[in-house]
Amino acid sequence: MKSAKITLKDILDLKNKRKITMLTAYDFPTASLVDKAGIDMILVGDSLANVVLGLDSTTKVGMTEMLHHAKAVTRAVEHALVVGDMPYDSYQVNPEECVKNAGRFIAEANCDAVKLEWFDRCLEVTEKIISAGIPVMGHIGLTPQTADKIGGFKVQGKDAETAQKLIDQAVNLQKLGCFSIVLECVPDKIAAVITRKLKIPTIGIGAGLDCDGQVLVIHDLLGLFERFKPKFVKQYINLSPLIFKAIEEYKNEVTALKFPAPEHTFGIKEEELKKLK
Ligand code: KIV
Predict the structure, then answer these.
(1) Distance between Cα 263 and ligand 1 center (Å)
(2) Residue 153 falls inside a structural domain
(3) Is 226 designated active site?
(4) Which of 173, 214, 237, 253 has the greatest CB tally within 10 Å of its CB?
(5) Does the Cβ of 112 fall within 6 Å of ligand 1?
(6) Is 17 in the same domain as 105?
(7) CB 74 within 8 A of CB 103
(8) Does the pLDDT value for residue 2 go beyond 60?
(9) Nearest residue CA, atom 1 of ligand 1?
(10) pLDDT grade for 80, boundaries at 50, 70 and 90
């Protein structure tokens, strides 16, 4: 039996019932597998920049790349709620463009919601997008798009003052109507405080067990990204050497005339061949 499409209400209702699962995907075949495995939400993350496009910063992808990949993902998905990640220049460089760009994720790429990383004008931008009827997932803690402004790629909220800031950000995002919030690289006890304080679900990445759900970058989980491995990543399988071995085998078989074999080859009758001049 085909399971129904997950709604925002389903995600909200899962809080305090069972943990919510979320993974990134950036293409049709991966999104199809993630969806068939019954993951609740798929994030077309701007981590696309690092793990798919080989760029050194998520600020280097824009709307063109994000929409291109989001469209491929939503073509595959029947069940999961799909969240499009707003790239840096779609709302931080041009806050005035935020509603138009958020709307493109919904209208052109068929996403169900967008995600915004915290930055100094985050509340203003979030309010505008939600007022336009577009569901928003917040993202606080380590926000890679503005890592240079928060002391680099480091755990956030490690003292009372910065932890209080995170709590206030989360409460304010909930007040504006966000349907959930990603907590990235936050001490587990602070994530637990935020999770208890909010009615909306928290989705953790490097934020401990007490969050309402978890998200990981799929390339990290599958062992497909070798440049760096954050402490919070669990690699469930290391696909890189398996893929490498298959490619090597193909190369060796082609050069040794073992591939294509007769079963991969199309024939023609002798009498037809004889008719050729
Ligand atoms: O872009 C992304 O993949 C993300 C997750 C790490 C939450 O924002």
Answers:
(1) 44
(2) yes
(3) no
(4) 173
(5) no
(6) yes
(7) no
(8) no
(9) 45
(10) very high
Verify whether ligand 1 is closer than 6 Å to residue 117 (CB atom).
Answer: no
Average pLDDT, the chain: 97
- Residue span of the structural domain in which 264 resides: 242-274
Gap between the Cα atoms of 253 and 271, Å rounded:
31
- Nearest CA owner, ligand 1 atom 5: 45
Name the residue among 135, 124, 164, 142 with its Cα closest to residue 215.
142
Mutate to test the pocket of ligand 1, among 23, 43, 232 (most ligand atoms within 8 A of CB): 43
Predicted confidence (pLDDT) at residue 240 exceeds the cutoff of 80: yes
Shortest-distance Cα residue to atom 2 of ligand 1: 45
Residue 37 sits in the same domain as residue 116: yes
Owner of token pair 């989360």: 170
Q: Are residues 247 and 204 in the same domain?
A: no
pLDDT at 1: 47
Q: Give the angle subtended at the CA of 132 by the CAs of 126 and 134, to the nearest 5°.
A: 70
As to burial, measured by CB atoms within 10 angstroms (0-12 exposed, 13-18 middle, 19+ buried), residue 1 is exposed
* Cα 197 to ligand 1 centroid, rounded to whole Å: 23
User: Atom 4 in ligand 1: which residue has the minimum CA distance?
Assistant: 45
The answer as to whether 2 is a domain residue is no
The answer to whether residues 164 and 30 belong to one domain is yes
pTM over 0.85: yes
Instruction: Give domain status of residue 1, yes or no.
Output: no
Angle of CA points 166, 155, 178, to nearest 5°: 35
Q: Is the pLDDT of residue 58 over 90?
A: yes
Judge if 168 and 266 occupy the same domain.
no
Q: How many domains does the chain have?
A: 2
Kindly name the residue from 96, 108, 184, 263 that is annotated as catalytic.
184
